[in-house]
Design goal:
Blueprint: E1 20-22, E2 26-29, E3 32-35, H1 41-50, E4 53-56, E5 63-64, E6 67-68, H2 72-81, E7 85-90, H3 97-106, E8 117-119, H4 120-131, E9 137-141, H5 144-152, E10 157-158, H6 170-173, E11 182-187, H7 195-208, E12 213-216, E13 222-224, E14 230-232, H8 234-245, E15 250-251, H9 257-261, E16 272-275, H10 279-287, E17 291-292
Parallel strand pairs: 4-7, 4-16, 7-8, 9-10, 9-11, 11-12, 12-15, 16-17
Antiparallel strand pairs: 1-2, 2-3, 5-6, 13-14
Helix pairs in contact: 4-5, 7-8
Organism: Falco tinnunculus
Catalytic activity: sn-glycerol 3-phosphate + H2O = glycerol + phosphate; O-phospho-L-tyrosyl-[protein] + H2O = L-tyrosyl-[protein] + phosphate; sn-glycerol 1-phosphate + H2O = glycerol + phosphate
Region (Disordered): 1-24
Protein backbone atom coordinates (compact mmCIF):
# COMPACT_ATOMS: atom_id res chain seq x y z
CA UNK A 1 0.00 0.00 0.00
CA UNK A 2 1.20 3.55 -0.73
CA UNK A 3 1.67 6.43 1.66
CA UNK A 4 -1.62 7.69 3.04
CA UNK A 5 -2.66 11.15 1.75
CA UNK A 6 -1.91 13.91 4.25
CA UNK A 7 0.99 12.00 5.80
CA UNK A 8 3.86 13.87 4.23
CA UNK A 9 2.85 13.32 0.62
CA UNK A 10 1.10 15.42 -2.02
CA UNK A 11 -2.13 14.79 -3.85
CA UNK A 12 -2.81 17.51 -6.40
CA UNK A 13 -5.12 15.94 -8.94
CA UNK A 14 -4.12 14.03 -12.00
CA UNK A 15 -2.86 16.11 -14.86
CA UNK A 16 -0.63 15.23 -17.77
CA UNK A 17 2.85 16.57 -17.17
CA UNK A 18 4.43 18.59 -19.92
CA UNK A 19 1.28 20.03 -21.54
CA UNK A 20 1.98 23.46 -23.06
CA UNK A 21 -0.61 26.05 -24.08
CA UNK A 22 0.18 27.74 -27.37
CA UNK A 23 -1.43 30.68 -29.11
CA UNK A 24 -4.74 29.86 -30.69
CA UNK A 25 -5.69 27.47 -27.91
CA UNK A 26 -3.54 24.54 -29.06
CA UNK A 27 -1.87 22.38 -26.43
CA UNK A 28 0.85 19.86 -27.04
CA UNK A 29 0.19 16.78 -24.92
CA UNK A 30 1.62 13.34 -25.45
CA UNK A 31 3.37 14.42 -28.62
CA UNK A 32 0.29 15.68 -30.49
CA UNK A 33 -1.78 18.87 -30.65
CA UNK A 34 -5.16 19.32 -29.02
CA UNK A 35 -7.35 22.32 -29.77
CA UNK A 36 -9.49 24.23 -27.31
CA UNK A 37 -12.74 25.02 -29.13
CA UNK A 38 -14.48 28.38 -28.82
CA UNK A 39 -17.88 27.93 -27.20
CA UNK A 40 -20.06 29.75 -29.72
CA UNK A 41 -23.85 29.59 -30.09
CA UNK A 42 -24.22 26.22 -31.84
CA UNK A 43 -21.61 24.52 -29.65
CA UNK A 44 -23.16 26.00 -26.50
CA UNK A 45 -26.60 24.67 -27.43
CA UNK A 46 -25.16 21.22 -28.12
CA UNK A 47 -23.20 21.07 -24.86
CA UNK A 48 -25.99 22.43 -22.67
CA UNK A 49 -28.66 20.42 -24.43
CA UNK A 50 -26.89 17.14 -23.66
CA UNK A 51 -26.10 17.98 -20.03
CA UNK A 52 -28.42 17.19 -17.14
CA UNK A 53 -26.21 18.77 -14.47
CA UNK A 54 -24.17 21.96 -14.42
CA UNK A 55 -21.42 22.55 -11.85
CA UNK A 56 -20.56 26.18 -11.12
CA UNK A 57 -17.66 27.71 -9.28
CA UNK A 58 -18.82 30.64 -7.15
CA UNK A 59 -16.15 33.25 -6.31
CA UNK A 60 -15.23 35.09 -9.50
CA UNK A 61 -17.85 33.26 -11.60
CA UNK A 62 -21.22 33.90 -9.95
CA UNK A 63 -20.15 36.70 -7.63
CA UNK A 64 -17.25 38.78 -6.39
CA UNK A 65 -17.54 39.41 -2.69
CA UNK A 66 -21.17 40.42 -2.08
CA UNK A 67 -21.92 41.50 -5.66
CA UNK A 68 -23.30 39.11 -8.27
CA UNK A 69 -21.49 39.00 -11.62
CA UNK A 70 -23.63 40.80 -14.17
CA UNK A 71 -26.11 38.48 -15.88
CA UNK A 72 -25.13 35.42 -13.85
CA UNK A 73 -28.36 35.13 -11.85
CA UNK A 74 -30.53 35.55 -14.94
CA UNK A 75 -28.51 32.98 -16.87
CA UNK A 76 -28.81 30.39 -14.12
CA UNK A 77 -32.51 31.15 -13.83
CA UNK A 78 -32.98 30.27 -17.50
CA UNK A 79 -30.98 27.07 -17.07
CA UNK A 80 -33.08 26.06 -14.06
CA UNK A 81 -36.27 26.83 -15.99
CA UNK A 82 -35.00 24.54 -18.76
CA UNK A 83 -34.82 21.68 -16.26
CA UNK A 84 -31.07 21.68 -15.64
CA UNK A 85 -29.78 20.62 -12.24
CA UNK A 86 -27.51 23.33 -10.84
CA UNK A 87 -24.76 22.51 -8.35
CA UNK A 88 -22.11 24.71 -6.78
CA UNK A 89 -18.49 23.70 -6.20
CA UNK A 90 -16.44 26.20 -4.22
CA UNK A 91 -13.04 26.14 -2.56
CA UNK A 92 -14.05 28.89 -0.14
CA UNK A 93 -14.20 27.40 3.36
CA UNK A 94 -15.57 30.50 5.11
CA UNK A 95 -19.25 29.46 4.78
CA UNK A 96 -21.28 26.37 5.51
CA UNK A 97 -23.41 24.76 2.82
CA UNK A 98 -26.51 26.29 4.39
CA UNK A 99 -24.90 29.75 4.32
CA UNK A 100 -24.10 29.36 0.63
CA UNK A 101 -27.72 28.54 -0.19
CA UNK A 102 -28.74 31.72 1.64
CA UNK A 103 -26.19 33.78 -0.31
CA UNK A 104 -27.47 32.35 -3.59
CA UNK A 105 -31.00 33.38 -2.60
CA UNK A 106 -29.90 36.85 -1.46
CA UNK A 107 -28.10 37.56 -4.74
CA UNK A 108 -31.08 36.48 -6.84
CA UNK A 109 -29.97 33.03 -8.00
CA UNK A 110 -32.40 30.11 -8.35
CA UNK A 111 -33.32 28.36 -5.07
CA UNK A 112 -30.75 25.75 -3.98
CA UNK A 113 -30.58 23.12 -1.27
CA UNK A 114 -27.51 22.50 0.91
CA UNK A 115 -27.04 19.08 -0.75
CA UNK A 116 -26.36 20.87 -4.04
CA UNK A 117 -23.44 22.87 -2.57
CA UNK A 118 -20.00 21.29 -2.28
CA UNK A 119 -17.81 23.65 -0.29
CA UNK A 120 -14.32 22.81 0.84
CA UNK A 121 -15.35 23.10 4.52
CA UNK A 122 -17.93 20.35 4.03
CA UNK A 123 -15.48 18.15 2.10
CA UNK A 124 -12.76 18.63 4.72
CA UNK A 125 -15.17 17.53 7.44
CA UNK A 126 -16.19 14.47 5.43
CA UNK A 127 -12.55 13.56 4.80
CA UNK A 128 -11.54 13.82 8.45
CA UNK A 129 -14.54 11.82 9.57
CA UNK A 130 -13.31 9.00 7.33
CA UNK A 131 -9.57 9.38 8.00
CA UNK A 132 -9.42 9.94 11.77
CA UNK A 133 -9.94 7.23 14.38
CA UNK A 134 -13.00 7.57 16.59
CA UNK A 135 -12.53 10.30 19.19
CA UNK A 136 -9.51 11.90 17.50
CA UNK A 137 -9.62 15.68 17.17
CA UNK A 138 -8.45 18.27 14.64
CA UNK A 139 -6.52 21.45 15.34
CA UNK A 140 -8.23 23.98 13.07
CA UNK A 141 -6.77 27.07 11.48
CA UNK A 142 -10.03 28.24 9.99
CA UNK A 143 -13.41 29.90 10.31
CA UNK A 144 -16.45 29.19 12.49
CA UNK A 145 -18.05 27.73 9.35
CA UNK A 146 -15.28 25.15 9.09
CA UNK A 147 -15.78 24.30 12.76
CA UNK A 148 -19.54 23.99 12.21
CA UNK A 149 -19.07 21.50 9.37
CA UNK A 150 -16.78 19.42 11.60
CA UNK A 151 -19.36 19.47 14.37
CA UNK A 152 -22.07 18.39 11.93
CA UNK A 153 -20.22 15.13 11.19
CA UNK A 154 -19.03 14.53 14.75
CA UNK A 155 -15.33 15.43 14.46
CA UNK A 156 -13.98 17.03 17.69
CA UNK A 157 -11.90 20.15 17.09
CA UNK A 158 -10.15 23.10 18.69
CA UNK A 159 -8.43 26.22 17.43
CA UNK A 160 -10.90 28.57 15.61
CA UNK A 161 -10.71 32.21 16.72
CA UNK A 162 -7.84 34.44 17.83
CA UNK A 163 -4.79 33.00 19.58
CA UNK A 164 -1.98 34.67 21.50
CA UNK A 165 1.59 33.61 22.14
CA UNK A 166 1.87 32.12 25.66
CA UNK A 167 4.85 34.23 26.70
CA UNK A 168 7.52 36.72 25.59
CA UNK A 169 10.27 34.24 24.67
CA UNK A 170 10.53 31.54 21.98
CA UNK A 171 11.02 28.95 24.75
CA UNK A 172 7.55 29.90 26.01
CA UNK A 173 6.04 29.48 22.55
CA UNK A 174 7.37 25.92 22.36
CA UNK A 175 5.81 24.99 25.70
CA UNK A 176 2.13 25.79 25.10
CA UNK A 177 -0.12 22.88 26.13
CA UNK A 178 -1.04 20.35 23.43
CA UNK A 179 -4.33 18.47 23.39
CA UNK A 180 -3.54 14.72 23.42
CA UNK A 181 -6.58 13.97 21.23
CA UNK A 182 -5.37 16.01 18.22
CA UNK A 183 -4.45 13.78 15.29
CA UNK A 184 -4.87 16.26 12.43
CA UNK A 185 -4.10 19.86 11.52
CA UNK A 186 -6.72 21.38 9.22
CA UNK A 187 -5.93 24.64 7.39
CA UNK A 188 -8.73 26.72 5.87
CA UNK A 189 -9.40 30.42 5.44
CA UNK A 190 -8.58 32.02 8.80
CA UNK A 191 -8.83 35.76 9.36
CA UNK A 192 -7.12 35.20 12.73
CA UNK A 193 -4.13 33.34 11.26
CA UNK A 194 -1.09 34.24 13.36
CA UNK A 195 2.40 33.22 14.36
CA UNK A 196 0.93 31.71 17.52
CA UNK A 197 -1.32 29.43 15.48
CA UNK A 198 1.52 28.53 13.12
CA UNK A 199 3.67 27.54 16.12
CA UNK A 200 0.92 25.37 17.54
CA UNK A 201 0.20 23.69 14.20
CA UNK A 202 3.88 22.85 13.79
CA UNK A 203 4.11 21.43 17.30
CA UNK A 204 1.15 19.11 16.70
CA UNK A 205 2.68 17.90 13.44
CA UNK A 206 6.11 17.36 15.02
CA UNK A 207 4.59 15.50 17.95
CA UNK A 208 2.46 13.21 15.81
CA UNK A 209 4.85 12.77 12.91
CA UNK A 210 3.33 10.94 9.93
CA UNK A 211 0.39 9.84 12.10
CA UNK A 212 -0.82 13.43 12.41
CA UNK A 213 -2.66 14.41 9.23
CA UNK A 214 -2.00 17.74 7.52
CA UNK A 215 -5.09 18.73 5.51
CA UNK A 216 -5.81 21.92 3.56
CA UNK A 217 -9.12 23.06 2.13
CA UNK A 218 -7.58 24.50 -1.07
CA UNK A 219 -4.53 26.11 -2.67
CA UNK A 220 -6.22 29.23 -4.04
CA UNK A 221 -3.77 32.11 -3.77
CA UNK A 222 -6.35 34.91 -3.95
CA UNK A 223 -10.02 35.49 -3.18
CA UNK A 224 -11.62 37.84 -5.77
CA UNK A 225 -13.73 40.71 -4.45
CA UNK A 226 -15.85 43.52 -5.86
CA UNK A 227 -14.23 46.04 -8.17
CA UNK A 228 -11.48 43.72 -9.34
CA UNK A 229 -9.71 43.68 -5.96
CA UNK A 230 -8.59 40.57 -4.11
CA UNK A 231 -7.30 39.38 -0.76
CA UNK A 232 -4.81 36.58 0.00
CA UNK A 233 -6.43 33.17 -0.21
CA UNK A 234 -6.17 29.99 1.81
CA UNK A 235 -3.29 28.70 -0.30
CA UNK A 236 -1.03 31.30 1.32
CA UNK A 237 -1.85 29.93 4.78
CA UNK A 238 -1.49 26.30 3.68
CA UNK A 239 1.93 27.13 2.25
CA UNK A 240 3.07 28.67 5.53
CA UNK A 241 2.21 25.51 7.48
CA UNK A 242 3.75 23.28 4.79
CA UNK A 243 6.96 25.32 4.89
CA UNK A 244 7.22 25.11 8.68
CA UNK A 245 6.42 21.39 8.77
CA UNK A 246 8.50 20.55 5.68
CA UNK A 247 5.72 18.36 4.30
CA UNK A 248 2.83 18.78 1.90
CA UNK A 249 -0.82 18.90 2.84
CA UNK A 250 -3.58 16.71 1.44
CA UNK A 251 -5.93 19.13 -0.33
CA UNK A 252 -9.63 18.25 -0.27
CA UNK A 253 -10.77 21.09 -2.55
CA UNK A 254 -10.62 21.43 -6.32
CA UNK A 255 -9.04 19.80 -8.25
CA UNK A 256 -8.77 16.80 -5.94
CA UNK A 257 -10.66 13.63 -6.87
CA UNK A 258 -11.93 13.37 -3.28
CA UNK A 259 -14.23 16.36 -3.93
CA UNK A 260 -15.94 14.56 -6.80
CA UNK A 261 -16.48 11.49 -4.64
CA UNK A 262 -18.56 13.57 -2.22
CA UNK A 263 -21.25 14.29 -4.81
CA UNK A 264 -24.27 12.56 -3.30
CA UNK A 265 -26.74 13.96 -5.80
CA UNK A 266 -26.69 11.00 -8.17
CA UNK A 267 -24.87 12.55 -11.10
CA UNK A 268 -26.12 10.92 -14.31
CA UNK A 269 -23.97 9.17 -16.85
CA UNK A 270 -24.95 11.80 -19.43
CA UNK A 271 -22.62 14.80 -19.76
CA UNK A 272 -22.04 17.19 -16.90
CA UNK A 273 -20.70 20.68 -17.54
CA UNK A 274 -18.56 22.68 -15.14
CA UNK A 275 -17.75 26.39 -15.31
CA UNK A 276 -14.80 27.85 -13.47
CA UNK A 277 -12.90 31.12 -13.29
CA UNK A 278 -9.40 29.63 -13.23
CA UNK A 279 -7.96 26.92 -15.41
CA UNK A 280 -5.67 25.80 -12.59
CA UNK A 281 -8.35 24.96 -10.03
CA UNK A 282 -11.00 22.93 -11.78
CA UNK A 283 -9.73 21.62 -15.10
CA UNK A 284 -7.44 18.96 -13.58
CA UNK A 285 -10.51 17.95 -11.55
CA UNK A 286 -12.47 17.43 -14.76
CA UNK A 287 -9.68 15.63 -16.57
CA UNK A 288 -10.09 12.76 -14.12
CA UNK A 289 -13.91 12.74 -14.43
CA UNK A 290 -16.47 12.60 -17.26
CA UNK A 291 -17.10 16.33 -17.51
CA UNK A 292 -17.12 18.98 -20.22
CA UNK A 293 -15.00 21.98 -19.24
CA UNK A 294 -15.60 25.51 -20.50
CA UNK A 295 -13.06 27.94 -19.04
CA UNK A 296 -14.23 31.46 -18.12
CA UNK A 297 -11.99 34.52 -18.15
CA UNK A 298 -14.10 36.52 -15.69
CA UNK A 299 -11.64 36.43 -12.80
CA UNK A 300 -8.03 36.28 -13.91
CA UNK A 301 -5.93 35.41 -16.90
CA UNK A 302 -6.42 31.76 -17.69
CA UNK A 303 -3.37 29.56 -17.84
CA UNK A 304 -2.86 25.87 -18.39
CA UNK A 305 -0.46 23.75 -16.35
CA UNK A 306 -1.45 20.21 -17.17
CA UNK A 307 -4.70 20.08 -19.13
CA UNK A 308 -6.64 22.10 -21.67
CA UNK A 309 -10.36 22.90 -21.35
CA UNK A 310 -12.76 21.60 -23.97
CA UNK A 311 -14.06 25.16 -24.53
Amino acid sequence: MGTRPGRGTANRGGGRAGTRLRRGGVAMAGGGPRRCRRLEADAARAVLGAADTLLFDCDGVLWRGEAAVGGAAAALGRLAAAGKRLCYVTNNSSRTRAAYTEKLRRLGFPPAEPRHVFGSAYCAARYLRQALPLGAAAYVLGSPALAAELEAVGVPHLGPGPAALPGPAPADWAQAPLDPAVRAVLVGFDEHFSYAKLCQALRYLLRGGPDCLLVGTNRDHRLPLEGGTAIPGTGCLVKAVETAAQREAFIVGKPNRFRYQQFNIGLPSSPTVQRNSSSSALMPFSSTQTLETPCLYSNNRAYCLSVLPEY
